[in-house]
Amino acid sequence: MLHTLSGALTPYIFSPITVLLFLLAVTAYLVGWRRLAVGGRSPSAWRTLSFFLGVLLCYTVMHTQFDYYSRYMFFVHRGQHLVLHHLGAFLIALANPLPVLAACAGERRFPGLSAAFRPVRRVLFDPLVATVLFVGLIFFWLTPSIHFDAMLSLRLYELMNWSMLVDGVIFWLVILDPRDPDLAGTSRFGVRFVMLVAALFPQILLGAYITFADAGLYDVYAICGRAFAIEPATDQVLGGILTWIPAAMMTIIGALVVLRLYLRYDSEKGG
Amino acid sequence: MVRTLGAALLAAGLMWLAGCGSSDVSFNGKDITGLMPDLAFSLTGTEGETVTEARYQDEAVVLFFGYTHCPDFCPTTLTALAQALNKLSDQEREQLRVLFVSVDPERDTPELLAKYTAYFSPRVDGLTGDQEALRELTKRYRTTYSYEEPDKNGNYLVNHGLAMYGFDRHGKVRLFMRNDQPMDQIAEDLRALVSIQ
Questions:
Q1: Domain boundaries, chain B
Q2: A251 in the Ramachandran plot: left (φ > 0), alpha (ψ -120 to 50) or beta?
Q3: Which A-chain residues 113-152 have CB contacts (< 8 A) with chain B?
């Protein structure tokens, strides 16, 4: 399957909804980017790059042969979620994509639509809700019985992956929002630090628990067959470490970005 | 307009998830009604003929993947299934079929499969197919297989899933049994599977 590039890029299970959502996101971003560029307000090159890199990473882990290995190896599955929930979502949020996506609509206004989404946005972007959801979803999908069902059912599996990606993007949008909190009403920088610390420790605990627990915590991989022969204990330890260390490192990187945003805000206020 | 759209989306989402139902009977194994697709396949039988799910209409089916050179899981699981079948009444046994699907078509010729399955029980049918058909069927039931490197005599191990999948007489997926489920409990679950009308 991996012998050719096209073989490696072919999705293991073709998912129309995944293709549709990715196409929609990229098209909306491109249209918005074009409109902003015409007005001379195009986002910087590195933000644009960050968006496409994030989208590309997420698409790769969801809709190529990488997905096959994610379904049949626990540690690859943890790598997949690391990209969806942390790295890819982080890069997408770092691109500050909301103004670009909003520009997609151009001069047209949809008051009904924005009114309907305002309460949803207010709840999901609330610092407490965003943090609880961010950590809660990791724990939820890693509950052994739920993990078992999600791995057996195609629909639950798609729901799991999409919920991780969408939730990751929302969490990092709250953390990485570059606007001035005084003017935009976004979360204050101190609150964002607290969010990161609150999210950090449960992830470390869970990662360590999986790493050191007896093998067989997630036996769906043993029962349904692994993509290649590997000791179940090794698979679980690798998966535990992936849940633990890179995820914690992303939190630290997030904190550094928040620190930089704060310093800029502080010098602007001071100056 | 927006509210209607939102309600429609919510309803569609709920219906999408509502596929996960449950059977009226209770199993020792896992009830997977709605979690997986119904029985459908096109494989090769022990006479070299094409076999589809249509052959097993009105029979409950237990599906199991393996290969005849398997040193451990396949013979133990098939032995447990054969013993469980013997615990059923003649009438119950007549309504149940075990499908042993070999994922090693290179070595498992129809003749070898026929000899191997007959050793366990006349209610076990051996089936296999080309790689394309096997990949499709294993993907359908969320399992996989791979081959290890052959030794100097050309013998090789095959990694494969260990689960048994139970379908009622209409081909609806119902039951998921692990390979280590005790034989008595397998027998109880087979009885429950046959009882679904």
A1: 22-195
A2: alpha
A3: 113, 115-116, 148-149, 151-152
